[in-house]
């Protein structure tokens, strides 16, 4: 009888312990689903729910304040999400708060984050619609990271190939390590520096010359800045032009004379090129000179003749009276 009584006590204790475990489990499950607390229904919309399920957490400032009650499609571009938030947590949440999708860790469950909004707002009421932001697409981010990894691998391979080429004998790095080449480059840079200095000096001189010209200094400045000098230069250029025209005309005449000399049928060509005619002309000139001398002698003899002496004396006296010069 005592053995049966002990079995009943042990059975009662076992049932009591099981009931306590069941009550504690139901309480914990209910507390997560807000079954044993007063809640407020709040709604928001997203363009993409991104794996959000009923029962996922709702967080405000990093603290769980409720759960997701339902996820439904509102239209072809909008997903309606219903949130159940505990009323004791709504004191600090205003109706201008912004809802966004997040995740519990890098690869954890999706959840809804509520962040304070800008400006002043009113406390939450049942059925209020919260604004939302575009969530971060983890899948798109992972795809972008995958493409980035591929590009980084290709760049790394190219850098490795470039490094191998640069370390080969005769490469650019090898040339830079050559001391003779470094000396030549240093000398070339010195020459370039000297050239740049000379060019700078020439530029300064040209600048000074231009300044003098603008200020009317020097011959060029006087010519440019003095209107009188400009007029004189213009007159001189006009005279030079006339002289050039005269030279051109004279050159034309000389050219025509040369052409006439080269003409076989012309008198000039006959006089200059035909030796026979030239000799005859010379003899004619000699005869003319001889005849002239003979004529002078005859005239002198005529003056001494008694028949014409009186005539010449009267002519001489007339020349003296008229103030004529002595012949």
Main β sheet profile: 7 strands, mixed
Helix/sheet category: alpha/beta
Question: What is the gyration radius calculated from CA atoms?
Answer: 64 Å
Number of helices: 9
Name the average pLDDT: 76
Strand content: 5-15%
SSE succession:
HEEEEEEEHHHHHHHH
Percent of residues in helices: 55-70%
Structure description:
The chain is an alpha/beta fold and about 325 residues long. About 60% of the residues lie in helices and about 15% in strands. Strands 5-6-2-3-4-1-7 form a seven-stranded mixed sheet, with no helix packed on it. A hairpin with a 2-residue loop joins strand 2 and strand 3 (about 65-75). Helix 5 (about 220-225) crosses helix 6 (about 225-260) and helix 7 crosses helix 8.
In short:
The protein is of the alpha/beta class and 327 residues long. Among the domains are: 33-135; 137-177; 182-215; 275-318.
What does the secondary structure layout of this molecule look like, with pairings?
Layout: H1 2-32, E1 39-46, E2 57-60, E3 63-73, E4 79-86, E5 98-103, E6 110-115, E7 129-130, H2 138-166, H3 172-176, H4 179-214, H5 218-225, H6 227-262, H7 267-273, H8 275-304, H9 306-321
Parallel strand pairs: 1-7, 2-6
Antiparallel strand pairs: 1-4, 2-3, 3-4, 5-6
